[in-house]
């Protein structure tokens, strides 16, 4: 049984909004996206999140306990600068934990970051526990659609006890915030 043209338009107009297919009707706008396309870069990355790996460039190990990742001595992330940051600059924040085992063996760890070969001030950590590396990022470093942030630790735990990874810090999240 064929549906005449006017009845088909009526049914389409009736059903599509309830399915969220028409833009502005509550459903996600998937126009221009394919299933294979990775999500767009975000300003903050929860390193254990389901889409984080598309922004974690190098130096990140697999997710552990569904909530965090170890880093290597050098690691990099790709971030989208916040709106307006090309004019005002932004704040880089890296949230991580220094495990007791790292501090007991290394006594201190210095973390530094760079964007477009511009070094941001390093910071030295001497106590185990949660920590945040926070730095102002000048506006001239944030003019592109994505920014690569390279991090480096001065010391890492060398492979041993059956673990062949070079271990730095336990990462939670990293991002750029508007000033």
What descriptive keywords fit this protein?
globular; Jelly Rolls; mainly beta
Query: In the CATH scheme, what's the topology name of the largest domain?
Result: Jelly Rolls
Helical content stands at: 10-25%
* Oligomeric form: single chain
Question: Which series of helices and strands comes N to C?
Answer: HEEEHEHEEEEE
**Number of H- or I-type helical stretches:** 3
Largest sheet: 9 strands, antiparallel
- Quote the beta fraction: 35-45%
Explain what you see.
- The chain has helices spanning 5-18, 85-88, 100-106; strands spanning 44-46, 56-64, 68-79, 90-98, 109-115, 118-125, 129-137, 147-153, 170-178.
- The chain has three helices and nine strands; from the N terminus they run H-E-E-E-H-E-H-E-E-E-E-E.
- Strands 1, 2, 3, 4, 5, 6, 7, 8 and 9 form a nine-stranded antiparallel β-sheet that branches.
- Mean pLDDT is 84; it is low at 6-38.
- By secondary structure, it is mainly beta.
- It folds into two domains: 1-34, no CATH class; 44-178, Sandwich (Jelly Rolls).
- Strand 2 (56-64) and strand 3 form a beta hairpin.
């Amino acid at each position: 049984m064929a549906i005449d043209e006017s009845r088909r338009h009526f049914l389409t107009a009736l059903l599509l909004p309830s399915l969220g297919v028409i833009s502005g009707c509550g459903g996600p706008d998937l126009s221009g996206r394919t299933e294979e396309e990775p999500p767009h870069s975000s300003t903050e990355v929860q390193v254990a999140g389901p889409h984080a790996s598309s922004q974690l460039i190098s130096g990140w190990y697999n997710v552990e306990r569904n909530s965090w990742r170890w880093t290597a001595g050098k690691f990099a992330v790709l971030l989208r600068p916040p709106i307006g940051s090309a004019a005002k600059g932004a704040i880089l924040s890296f949230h991580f934990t220094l495990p007791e085992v790292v501090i007991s063996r290394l006594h201190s760890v210095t973390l530094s970051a760079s964007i477009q070969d511009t070094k941001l001030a390093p910071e030295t950590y001497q106590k185990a526990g949660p920590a945040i590396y926070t730095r102002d990022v000048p506006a001239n470093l944030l003019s592109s659609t994505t920014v690569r942030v390279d991090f480096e630790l001065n010391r890492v735990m060398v492979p041993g006890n059956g673990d062949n990874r070079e271990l730095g810090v336990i990462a939670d999240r990293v991002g750029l915030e508007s000033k």
